Amino acid sequence: MLGIWASAVLGAVWVGLAMDLAGGGHLAADGWGAVNSLPLPAQVVGWVLFLPVIVALWASQSGLSEAVGAAVLLGLALWTAVAWTGLARTLVAPRA
Question: What does the pLDDT look like over 36-56, one tens digit per residue?
Fold first, then answer.
């Protein structure tokens, strides 16, 4: 059950990040600043819980070329999609 809720939250975060980046990325910059302003233990927890999203924020704010940044974001989106397909297979697998 937790996997479904975690996937829903992560999906909402991905949709929000994509919409923000399409609109200029101002919230992504604010989000990256907020993550960096947290105390170190809270940063570690955030990185662990939201690794793909935090890496996407880093890529969008790091000054990488657009091609490299787009490749990083695409790779992270694919990583999330693969995780979701694993969850889907688990949910529809026959129970023993």
Answer: 999 999 999 988 888 877 887
